[in-house]
Amino acid sequence: xxxxxxxxxxxxxxxxxxxxxxxxxxxxxxxxxxxxxxxxxxxxxxxxxxxxxxxxxxxxxxxxxxxxxxxxxxxxxxxxxxxxxxxxxxxxxxxxxxxxxxxxxxxxxxxxxxxxxxxxxxxx
Length: 124
Fold this sequence. Notes:
Blueprint: H1 6-29, H2 58-82, H3 91-118
Helix pairs in contact: 2-3
């Protein structure tokens, strides 16, 4: 039984080796002589001129949430589409699955239209 997990163990060990060995080699072989310029904050080639803890506009988060919402829609849509023919043997059950996906898409389209009408997708 345990011999079935041996390839997984080999895969994990090889992954750790490929991930950790270059980091360790870089830490051991690379010169380490930091000065004040190397450890200073770097922002696009010049000194930072504002506080790093400034507040961001809420539109960044709103766009990110809308992106995640529609990305998850696709995550549900692709697996359903790949097995649509094998959902069930009868035509009525296939039609039920198709109608359920149409309802799912309709709810998301209504949400998209609502976000668009509220101006959540407008950037000024």
